[in-house]
């Protein structure tokens, strides 16, 4: 499987093509309503067209917003997919300049503006993680927490005390999960109880 990437922040890119002005705005979105909100917030009522696309995992949508079918939304989605991005929405707004671009010109203009915007954006690699909790006795707690905090592949998302120790809620990079669990088991001589979550 190829690595996937997310946008670190919202990015814009503008260009003029045959007197039409194109403005692309791309930003990170994590759920469908966030994508819809992003599109609404970054569409211009004064523009002729606000074409857009978004992808969140297997979900995606796109719109030509009055441009000929297939000439705007789909090329924007292809720009997103071409750069292996996930959790992203892109709006490309067009102010018509009086010169018709034709279908091929529109595809290049919308897809190209989106692609240049996305190429300029700062990206972060998406790392698959698993969530788990570990029940640790007080005698092992300080050592285990120190070791886990030193690992880049682990984040401690929560800590709940029990009568005999604490339960640590962990998020672990999937590729390192087995090694991390083995480390905790070794550090505690098998006393830690690991509870994996789906």
From TrEMBL:
Matching Gene3D superfamilies: 3.30.70.240, Impact, N-terminal domain
GO biological process: regulation of translational initiation
Domain of life: Bacteria
Residues in UPF0029 domain copies: 134-191
A Pfam family hit: DUF1949
Domain Impact N-terminal: from-to ranges: 18-117
Recorded family membership: Belongs to the IMPACT family.
Protein name: Putative YigZ family protein
């Amino acid at each position: 499987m190829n690595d996937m990437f997310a946008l670190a922040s919202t990015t814009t890119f503008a260009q003029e093509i045959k007197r039409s002005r194109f403005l692309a705005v791309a930003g990170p979105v994590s759920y469908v309503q966030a994508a819809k909100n992003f599109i609404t917030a970054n569409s211009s009522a004064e523009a002729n067209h606000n074409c857009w696309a978004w992808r969140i995992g297997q979900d995606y949508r796109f719109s030509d917003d009055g441009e000929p079918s297939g000439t705007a939304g789909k090329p924007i989605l292809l720009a997103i997919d071409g750069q292996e991005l996930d959790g992203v929405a892109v709006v490309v707004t067009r102010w018509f300049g009086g010169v018709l671009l034709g279908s091929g010109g529109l595809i290049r203009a919308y897809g190209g503006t989106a692609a240049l915007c996305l190429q300029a954006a700062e990206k972060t690699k998406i790392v698959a993680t698993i969530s788990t909790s570990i029940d640790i006795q007080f005698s092992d707690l300080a050592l285990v927490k120190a070791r886990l905090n030193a690992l880049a592949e682990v984040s401690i998302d929560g800590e709940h005390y029990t009568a005999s120790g604490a339960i640590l809620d962990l998020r672990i990079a999937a590729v390192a999960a087995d090694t991390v669990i083995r480390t905790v088991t070794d550090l505690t001589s098998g006393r830690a109880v690991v509870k994996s979550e789906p």
